[in-house]
Every structure is written in C-alpha cells, then in structure tokens.
Amino acid sequence: MREGKGPRVNAVHRGLQILELLAEQKKGWSTSDISRRLKIPKSTTSYLLHTLLARGYLRREDNGNYRLSMKMLALGSQTLHNVEARDVALPILRRLVAETHITGHLAVLEGAEAIYIERVPSPGFIQIDTWVGRRMPLHSTSSGKALLAFLPDEQAEGLLRTAGLPRSTPKTIMSFPRLKQELKKVRETGFALDNEENTVGVRCVAAPIFDRHQRVAAALSLTGPVQQITDDQLPKIAEKVREAARQMTLALGGSLPDILYQPHLGQAL
To answer: Domain limits of the chain?
Structure first.
C-alpha cells in the first residue's frame, strides 16, 4: 500500500489504512491479520479497531474477524447521491438563473448546518459573495428553513437545540415558537424566505427537493439584494423557485408531498 508524502496524523492515517484494507476483503480480517499486513503494532491495531467499532464503522463477526459496517455503505451512498443531485439539478438551476438574473444555489444538510454544494452566479452586474462549501445556519437562511421544515419534528428540534438561534441581523428569528410558525408556513406554501435575516440587504428564496421516499434531500435557492428581490417580484420569484425544485425532484426520481401542490401562491405572501 503506497503512502503519500507530507505531514499526517498517524492515528487517522492508520485508521484509514484499516478501512481500505477491510474494503478489499469480503470475509474480513482478524486483529492479527490486520496488524501483520499493515505492519502496525498489535496493541495499536486493537485500539483502532475498537474505536472504529464503537463509532459504528465496523462490525465484528463471531469468528473475531472485522468487516465494514452498513454505515460505510450509507456514507458512500450519500456521497453518490449528492454528486448525482448536482449533475441532474445543475441544468435546471442554470435555466432558473438565466431567467431571473439572480444567483442560484443548491444546499444540503450537513450536521446542524446547511452547506452549498453548487452555485450559479447571476449573469448581470449584481453579484453575491457566496461560494461552494459555504456553511450556513439553518434558522436564518431560506435553504436552512426549507431543509428543516420537512424533517421529522424531533430531528429538526434536535438540530436547532444543538446549533441554537444566534442573531445574524436585527431580523433574525431568535424564538423557537416563532421559528416553528415560520416552518409551518414553509410546509404550507412550499417555499422558504430569508428576509434579511442572515445578511442585511440580502433576500433569499428557497424550496425543498425530495427523494423517492418524500424525504427532503436538498434545497434550491435564489439569493439577491432587496433591490432585486422586491416585494412586488417576490411572489413570481418564489413560484419560479418552487417550480424549479419540483422539476429537480422529478428529475431525480423523487416524489413531492401533496401539500406542495398549492394554488394561488401569491396569496400566501
């Protein structure tokens, strides 16, 4: 197994070596086998195996051999899903941005934050300072609200308790009851609004994208200054975002909850 150059943390490096070795052997390996093949002291190997086992990345068979767990499969599947989602959704996102001249994003839930996995900048002079990989709070962004609103109540509440409701601007929602009402409105209308709640002078509109089990998989959003996303334009922009998210859901083989087929969207604003 070839090792790269440069500084590294030995425990992490050795742990990854163990995972890679086990991925090559369906029947698994014993502690002694792994120690011998990777030339790691047996005591160190045993410690690393027990750590990976406790974290759920390995399982131990009755014969003492270690094998990769389903958690590793889940991580790989999620990575593949995110890549697929980007490839399928990007053309739709580009059309939406070209039509509205507003910067567009795709975001997914990662821990207690939303993270941008795709960005299409506005073709005009107005540009928003965002980037792929940017992490954002859930309670004060439209993408975060769109992701939160369709999670099971217990999961959403757990994420919010973990992250808290820190103030970003004077308009940030910092009350759990008020945020609960906001998320209820997202479920009723099919879109979420950040009205200068995360950045002063910036509005964002987002809608959820669903998988085939009607679970929220990602959020599509448009982000622009208040001069671009005006009160008059907001209903039309929200409808375009919601329709683009619907198209992405169907393109990914997903299924939308019936509650999202709401007529007269503008009346909800």
So the answer is: 10-68, 73-268
Distance CA 238, CA 34 (A): 55
Find the length of the chain. Answer: 269
Question: Token pair for residue 213?
Answer: 């089990």
In this structure, which long-range contacts are made by residues 55-60, counting pairs with CB atoms below 8 Å and at least 24 apart in sequence? 57/19, 58/22
Class of domain 10-68: mainly alpha
Residue 113: DSSP 8-state: E
Nearest of 112, 75, 109, 79 to residue 209 by alpha carbon:
109
Q: What pLDDT sits at residue 84?
A: 65
Give the whole-angstrom CA distance, residue 12 versus residue 10: 5
d(CA 127, CA 115): 19
Mean pLDDT of residues grouped by 10 in the chain (269 residues)? 50 90 84 94 93 90 87 62 71 96 94 91 85 92 97 93 95 96 96 97 97 90 96 97 95 78 38
Helix (H, G, I), strand (E, B) or coil at 152: coil
Beta bridge mates, 218: 209
Instruction: Tell me if 173 sits within 8 A of 184, measured CB to CB.
Output: no
Over its C-alpha atoms, the chain yields an Rg (Å, rounded) of 22
CB 241 within 8 A of CB 206: yes
Confirm whether 10-68 and 73-268 share one CATH topology: no
> What is the CATH architecture of 73-268?
2-Layer Sandwich (3.30)
